[in-house]
Hints:
Blueprint: H1 2-50, H2 53-73, H3 75-81, H4 86-95, H5 100-129, H6 136-154, H7 158-181, H8 188-212, H9 218-244, H10 251-257, H11 268-278, H12 295-317, H13 325-355, H14 364-382, H15 384-387, H16 391-425, H17 430-437
Amino acid sequence: MAANSASAIQNNEVVDGHSTRGWQMVKTLPGKLRTKIAEFPGKVKKVGQDDPRRIAHSFKVGLAITLVSLFYYFDPLYVGFGSSSMWAVLTVIVVFEFSVGATLGKGLNRGLATFLAGTLGFGAHHLATLPGQKFQPLLLGIFVFILATTVSFIRFFPRMKARYDYGLVIFILTFCLISVSGYRDEEVLEMAHKRVSTILIGGFTALFVCIFICPVWAGDDLHNLAANNIEKLANFLEGFGDEYFKISADRESNKASLQGYKSVLNSKQNEESLVNFARWEPRHGRFRFRYPWKQYLKIGSLTRQCAYRVEALNGCLNSDVQASPEIRGKIQEACIKISSESGKAMKELASAIRTMTQPSCDCPHIAKSKNVANSLKSLLKTGLSKDTDDLQEIVAVVTVASLLFDVLSFTEKISESIHELATLAHFKSLETDVAEEKPNLNHQGQRQPSSNSIDLPQHHVIIIE
């Protein structure tokens, strides 16, 4: 009896506790709601400030949908297409993407898939009617099964998955709509014609607005992303030496400024998407037809591998195991030199990408870093073990040095890949520009007149005192 009473009391306390927490949540709900509403304008402003192109994109989508909606609003247009006009609106909503390449890729996939599937669907419907009404459902089912199975398997091919997956899905959808619905609708040709026409109209409207009104090119974003990622690594390397050896007085602010490289670690998916979109884009700006976009994947892969070493170096800054100032002093000058020179080399490479100019064949910063690295390797083999017996200190110092050696190696590999990009993309040469700007001089060092210049007579000035 006593046990039952204690259990009942405990259950009542649990119920009261839940009721109290529930009532507290209800009371705090209006305050949380007001806070969310107050924070919303700031979030909207931040999204627009991060990339003002998002605002233009939103207006472009609204404009495109409004244009294709006219097929519903005006009777002459609606009579021609009927309820199929809604397919134009749906196409704009589905196809319109942020960049020109993404919109072109989706638009061409949808348009081509719709046309081919509509043609095959009408053909399948025609073949199914030849043996008679009795066998028509059976043949249509066989055609749908074979095509859906085949196209679904084709989607697993990596190349098809990357570029044509959306088109393959639309192909299956359109074929099934035409062939299956055509069994109950006798005017299957007219239905297919209306749907294909409205889908093509919606696709062309989306492409026109996306390309000719404030276009956003995926190629430009990919090009700038590669340069920015390399520059972020350069910023870390230039400041790493001062931070690790405690040279800078303002340690906290310097350490915070070195964290920009972290976005490079997760850039693979973004780069692959931009490369895929850029390959759909026509020639624009500085990017010619058949531009070597795939080379950016190689540069991005090397940049990320270098970023992983930079992440390890950042871990050394916060490690609990640190070498003594005397031990670090022996490698200080060499490590700072390797880090800073590698950072300067990366900044030059980032600038070469951004300006589309060929980088120098023999980078002096990489050459200086390699010379210092060779000297540091000799010191690590012979000098440190004589000064200390603490294995942890030796490991800490060797870890930093080996990571800097890896960073230098990847800097050289990134330089080689950018040289390859400059060759494939025909970047302009600085030597050619300098030669064009250099004036023509004779053997006495005097400027020679150009062939189209006019020789003016020499005038003598007489001063009368």
